[in-house]
């Protein structure tokens, strides 16, 4: 069990934690949430032993293996695959010992046998295959896995760090913003991987849908305390809203009682007959616990003003080919953007979503076809590299003053206040800002220019949950047109009225919803892996044509042969879903702190036993599912 008791932590003049308590039980998956700068990453450093608390105690079981996701990667000539394999230190140590034992002149058969036995016990021989699967799931093509680490960009190196953390056999895994540099398909893959992770998991994340899918508890930073909630993020929102509403009622009732007592004291303190009663009222006021008013309002609230004039259409792409140099990524795009149109762009990694947005923004010239702009087109473009374009030596106020020298300082300060730049923060230089603060400033600069077309390419990277909520609300009220690429499904679902699927060299309307797209994406990735295997094995060479009737007969015979296995697979999937649901209910009960207040040892033991049984059942079902899947793949020749 992870146990924090009376933990206080100060950084400079700021109190991050003050007498905080928290207990997290083995096997639980917990999301860590709070505003940027509240101390989430610092909490991880405490758990890793990289920092010491100023007061209190932090206890973690001594034998636990801890995996964590580093935030930086040094450039090296090591291949991506080897870099990820280094995450399993025990495997690497055994590989080194085996290599030395096998290459040394002295051959000790007993020692070699022992090393091979240890390697088998940790499933070490499948290590390279497991590392390749992790890289594949996170979007690295098979050929890229042999590229040197230094050849990847910063965002892709962060993915390598994530893969390395997942490679590490761990009892406790700490992940800090794992989805920040992932697109939607990699995020969905990571969700499934983490759902199967058997250890204790702590995740710092600002992606509410991701938290909903993965965690069974939430630890919230609230007024220098750690508050533990049972359930996923949606359950946290409901519970906290109810608690704050009750707290507000209690606070208002208390204030009314205080006002009544203070009025009594004022009126009767001077009267001898009432003096004793007045003194008792004063003592009651002193004893009364101070209940803080509920701060339910977001610290961010802003609007996205639109240009006074508009055109119809704003932009029109006609038979447009999009790409770079000699490569066309998306062909024959037909897309007219009318005022008020709200489009979410979907598609796998590398399919051309960002290229399409760059073409709409005018940053990438069409390879062929036409791009026609309306007379009153005013574009607000938020690109993934937008933060690097900020002037590190300038303040938020100066950034806006450069755009509008005639605007009053007070009007600019009022505007920036909605983005969290309050008081003297408007004068601070951007160089010292966090990623989230830079992203907020970039959005503020975009909004100040009053666009009538917003082109947003992953605008939520680095934004915390409160700012994401404020952005979602502002986009819902924005009267202009919006084109959005985002891995934040909540933002997509609440902003876009329609979707365009960018895949296989085309950009076409997508009629399904995000859940349909999730299933489409899983199928697309399976097909992609199948094609890669085919290319590697040389199966892509042309084969002589076969008789069509014979092909149909063979296909029908194969379907008959596969039917019992596919039916069995579906049955196992139903059993897994039912068992997973039971497991989550048990884990929800075990996460309830009331259970550990005393006198319920038998109930705790029973729930722990059920948890173990459900996990073992899931493991067996997963093994059976994998075996049948492999049989199906062999029969299909995949």
UniProtKB/TrEMBL annotation:
Keyword Nucleotide-binding carried by entry: yes
Residues covered by region (Disordered): 531-550
Domain ABC transporter: 2-248, 312-529
GO molecular function, one term: ATP binding
Coiled-coil annotated residue ranges, if any: 555-638
Nucleotide-binding among keywords: yes
Residue spans of biased composition, Basic and acidic residues class: 531-549
The entry's keywords: ATP-binding, Coiled coil, Nucleotide-binding, Repeat
Name this polypeptide is given: ATP-binding cassette domain-containing protein
Species name: Microbulbifer variabilis
């Amino acid at each position: 069990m992870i146990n924090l008791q009376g933990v206080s932590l100060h950084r400079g003049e700021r109190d991050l934690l003050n007498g905080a308590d928290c207990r997290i039980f083995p096997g639980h998956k917990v999301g860590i949430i709070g505003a940027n700068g509240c101390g989430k990453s610092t909490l991880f450093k405490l758990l890793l032993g990289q920092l010491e608390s100023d007061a209190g105690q932090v206890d973690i079981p001594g034998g636990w293996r801890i995996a964590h996701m580093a935030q930086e990667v040094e450039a090296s000539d090591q291949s991506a695959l080897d870099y990820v394999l280094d995450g399993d230190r025990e495997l690497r140590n055994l590989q080194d010992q085996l290599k030395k034992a096998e290459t040394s002149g002295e051959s000790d058969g007993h020692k070699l046998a022992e090393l091979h036995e240890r390697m088998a016990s940790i499933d070490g021989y499948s290590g390279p295959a497991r590392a390749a699967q992790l890289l594949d799931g996170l979007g690295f093509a098979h050929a890229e896995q042999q590229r040197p680490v230094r050849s990847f960009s910063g965002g892709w190196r962060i993915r390598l760090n994530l893969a390395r953390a997942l490679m590490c056999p761990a009892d406790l895994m700490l992940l800090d913003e794992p989805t920040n540099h992932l697109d939607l398909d990699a995020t969905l893959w990571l969700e499934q991987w983490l759902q199967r992770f058997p250890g204790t998991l702590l995740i710092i994340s600002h992606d509410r849908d991701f938290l909903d899918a993965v965690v069974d508890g939430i630890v919230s930073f609230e007024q220098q305390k750690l508050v533990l909630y049972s359930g996923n993020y949606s359950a946290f929102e409901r519970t906290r809203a109810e608690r704050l509403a009750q707290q507000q009622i209690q606070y208002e009732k208390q204030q009314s009682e205080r006002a009544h007592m203070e009025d009594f004291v004022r009126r009767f303190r001077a009267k001898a007959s009432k003096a004793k009663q007045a003194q008792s009222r004063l003592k009651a006021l002193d004893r009364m616990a101070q209940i803080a008013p509920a701060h339910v309002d977001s610290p961010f609230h802003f609007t996205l003003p639109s240009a006074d004039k508009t055109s119809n259409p704003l932009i029109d792409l006609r038979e447009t080919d999009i790409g770079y140099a000699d490569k066309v990524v998306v062909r024959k795009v037909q897309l007219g953007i009318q005022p008020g149109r709200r489009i979410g762009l979907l598609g796998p990694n590398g399919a051309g979503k960002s290229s399409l947005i760059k073409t709409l923004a005018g940053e990438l010239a069409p390879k062929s076809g036409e791009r026609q702009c309306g007379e009153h087109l005013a574009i607000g473009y938020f690109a993934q590299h937008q933060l690097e374009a900020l002037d590190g030596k300038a303040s938020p106020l100066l950034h806006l003053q450069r755009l509008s020298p005639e605007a009053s300082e007070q009007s600019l300060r009022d505007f920036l206040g909605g983005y969290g730049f309050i008081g003297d923060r408007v004068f601070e230089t951007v160089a010292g800002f966090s990623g989230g603060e830079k992203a907020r400033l970039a959005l503020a600069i975009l909004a100040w220019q009053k666009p009538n077309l917003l082109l947003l390419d992953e605008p939520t990277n680095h934004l915390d949950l409160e700012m994401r909520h404020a952005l979602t609300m502002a986009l819902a009220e924005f009267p202009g047109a919006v084109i959005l690429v985002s891995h934040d499904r909540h933002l997509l679902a609440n902003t876009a009225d329609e979707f365009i699927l960018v895949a296989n060299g085309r950009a076409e309307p997508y009629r399904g919803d995000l859940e349909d797209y999730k299933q489409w994406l899983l199928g697309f990735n399976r097909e992609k892996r199948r094609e890669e295997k085919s290319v590697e094995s040389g199966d892509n060479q042309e084969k002589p044509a076969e008789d069509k009737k014979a092909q149909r007969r063979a296909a029908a015979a194969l379907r008959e042969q596969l039917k019992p296995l596919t039916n069995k697979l579906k049955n196992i999937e139903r059993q897994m879903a039912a068992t997973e649901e039971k497991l989550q209910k048990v884990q929800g009960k075990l996460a309830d702190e009331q259970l550990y207040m005393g006198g319920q040892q038998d109930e705790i033991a029973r729930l722990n036993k059920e948890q173990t049984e459900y996990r073992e059942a899931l493991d067996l079902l997963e093994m059976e599912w994998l075996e049948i899947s492999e049989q199906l793949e062999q029969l299909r020749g995949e």
